[in-house]
Amino acid sequence: xxxxxSLVSEVPDFPKPGILFRDVSPLLKQEFKxxxxxxxxxxxxxxxxxxxxxxxxxxxxxxxxxxxxYKHGKGFVKIRKPGKLPNVAGSISYGLEYGADxxxxxxxxxxxxxxxxxxIATGGSMGAAAELAEQVGYRVAGMACLVDxxxxxxxxxxxxxVRSVIQYx
Length: 169
What we know:
The protein is α/β, with parallel strands linked by helices.
């Protein structure tokens, strides 16, 4: 078993002074298959069967959502930053640990969705993505990320926690 956490590098003072950035790039370069397999294992076979589509939060969430959608034969949906998506059905603004942003989505169809991202810090983008997904017509069935900065959050959305492969306390 590969120690995935050991392949996450630490970049101090990025993108702003005082922020310790956890860079998953070396992990993805060296152990992409093991990473996707570990994320897949966060959910049971029954849970995977009940999911219709996987959504990735721009941009690193696309990596995980697309790979897992392919692995499990599911659809893929993008949750994008402003100005990047045609036929926007809804948008939401939210706070980040070092600023503010907004997300856009196209219309949903009642499908059960799993939302994925690379990392959860405060839960701002994950919470906004879940709210937006429901606003445009999806049913959020789960949330997952590769890295959880657990020391920065106790995030839950409607009683649902974000499942993660790597945790930093």
